[in-house]
Design a protein that fits this description.
heterodimer; A: 118 residues; alpha+beta; Alpha-Beta Plaits; 2 helices; 27% helix; B: 401 residues; mainly alpha; Rna Polymerase Sigma Factor, Chain: A; 4 domains
């Protein structure tokens, strides 16, 4: 019963990251570092990191005979996945508690989404 | 047990109303599978429909249904090879000591909190609660909300899938989380109630009474959480609103509160609602539902104490500020400080897309003798989205002037 599931905590933003008024990049980095430390202390950290802008993405489609390579992100959108954590949590309640802390740390909304179990 | 004509049916309906949530809850806890629990209970009800008229209603219908549903669930787990691993899981769960208790241990309470999890949309919470806790059919829920049955079935199916995939827990929240989680449950019950309330006088016929279902569910919740005054506050608010239904709509016509025939108010519901409000006031832990109930109760006094009503609105604004509350407060202010002051308060509100704002203006302007402006306000209200009952009422007001 104490088995855990992995959840993705995803942070979406546009090409230009904008934080709320009065919040500096240094502040965000410090808050995220502290959050990461809490995740590790509690044994809930699996992986996490920030991504380079979506314009740095390359799409490869190898479903045909020859791989087709396309410049840019797969889906045109105003917002892209900008960073994420993968965490262990007992259930959605715990994952949402971490998601709440993650959102406060990165000063933006966070999407909580479960991984497939196997 | 002997049962008169239709006794079996009555017994079954009563058990479904009272026990559905408890039985589904027990199965969800045992098997960890909402679909399985729902289907097993539905099958047990089918069996009851066939057997009870022949064998008679069992002495303890709830226990009978629970046992039958458990057997059905086990049968199904054994039968379906694809669920083989889940059967193992389910059987192994029987050996696991019960998980640590939350504030209260009750399967139905866990089911309430699972169905009303904050990760589910409010409309979805209502639908799930009516389906799993109250035991309404998907068709009944769809009729209650005037939606397509297929759309409602999809909504419920999606919600059950999310519960499984995202691991929404079957658990009473921790004490720290209880107030915020409870308010999510209460909001769902209040939405169901209002949906039923709005359909009063709806002549289309087959809508089930969601207001009664919501009252029944809120009563269950109050029994499960006797120390939560907001749950009692919501129950009181529902009872006081419901008490006036027969006076509020007469011959298909909407009657405003101050013109209602008080003899048509339900004395039982009124007494229960007012009694709850008195007890809650003595408790002194006010919350938004309790204050709304107190406001509603004050409107049922022989002489409405308008000064007190304004003070209650001030308290409500402090607890849960909203422009709609300000609008209602302004209408109470009209009785204390006059329509001119009230109109100033109303005009300060940014609610032009909300038809009751125009109705309030029309009312205050009429009191001030500014009839043409009052007419215009009524026209503006009619141009928005009043319910058919309200529309007819507003048209009568406009034609009267």
């Amino acid at each position: 019963m104490s088995s855990t599931t992995q959840y993705l905590l995803g942070v979406n933003h546009g090409d230009e990251i904008s934080w709320p008024e009065g919040v500096t990049a240094d502040q965000v980095f410090a808050d995220v570092d502290a959050f990461n430390a809490r995740l590790r202390e509690q044994g809930r950290w699996v992986f996490g990191g920030g991504l380079m802008p979506a314009s740095s993405a390359t799409v490869i489609d190898a479903t045909g005979p020859e791989p087709v390579i396309t410049d840019g992100p797969y889906v045109e959108s105003k917002e892209y996945l900008g960073g994420f954590w993968v965490i262990e949590a007992e259930d959605l309640d715990e994952a949402m508690r971490w998601g709440t802390e993650a959102s406060a740390a990165c000063h933006g909304p966070v999407e909580v989404r479960p991984f497939q179990s196997e | 047990m002997t049962a008169g004509p239709g006794g079996h049916e009555a017994a079954l309906v009563r058990v479904v109303r009272e026990e559905h949530g408890r039985i589904v809850g027990a199965l969800v806890r045992r098997y960890g599978d909402v679909d399985l629990a729902e289907d097993a209970v539905a099958e047990a009800l089918e069996v009851a429909w066939q057997k009870w008229p022949v064998d008679g209603v069992p002495p303890n219908p709830g226990a009978w249904l629970t046992t039958t549903a458990h057997r059905r669930a086990l049968d199904r787990l054994r039968r379906e090879s694809t669920r083989a691993s889940r059967e193992k899981e389910a059987t192994s769960m029987l050996d696991v000591p019960a998980e640590p208790l939350g504030v209260v241990d009750d399967d139905r309470l866990r089911l309430f909190f699972m169905c009303c999890h904050p990760s589910l949309a409010l409309e979805t919470r209502v639908a799930l609660t009516l389906r799993l806790v109250a035991g309404l059919s998907v068709a009944e829920i769809a009729a209650g909300f005037l939606t397509e049955e297929r759309a409602m079935a999809q909504r419920i199916t999606r919600a059950k899938r999310k519960i499984r995939d995202a691991r929404i827990p079957f658990r009473v929240p921790q004490r720290d989380d209880l107030p915020s989680r409870l308010s999510g449950v209460l909001a769902a019950l209040y939405l169901a109630f209002n949906e039923g309330y709005l359909s009063v006088g709806d002549e289309s016929g087959s809508r089930p009474d969601l207001a009664d279902e919501a009252i029944r569910l809120t009563r269950q919740l109050v029994d499960l959480l006797p120390a939560e005054p907001e749950a009692q506050g919501l129950l009181a608010l529902m009872l006081l609103t419901r008490a006036r239904d027969d006076a509020r709509v007469v011959d298909g016509r909407l009657v405003p509160l101050d013109e209602q025939d008080r003899d048509r108010w339900s004395p039982e519901l009124l007494a229960e609602g007012r009694g709850l409000v008195r007890a809650l006031l003595a408790l002194g832990q006010p919350g938004p539902y309790q204050v709304q109930a107190a406001i509603s109760a004050a409107h049922t006094d022989d002489e409405v104490p308008w000064g007190e009503v304004v003070a209650l609105y001030d308290l409500l604004l402090a607890l849960a500020p909203s422009p709609v509350v300000r609008l209602n407060r302004a209408l109470a202010v009209a009785h204390v400080e006059g329509p001119e002051t009230a109109l100033r308060l109303v005009d300060d509100l940014d609610l032009a897309s909300y038809h009751p704002w125009h109705v309030a203006r029309a009312h205050l302007l009429a009191l001030l003798g500014r009839d043409r402006e009052s007419q215009e306000a009524l026209d503006a209200a009619l141009a928005l989205d009043p319910t058919p009952l309200e529309r007819a009422h507003l048209e009568r007001l406009r034609d009267r002037a």
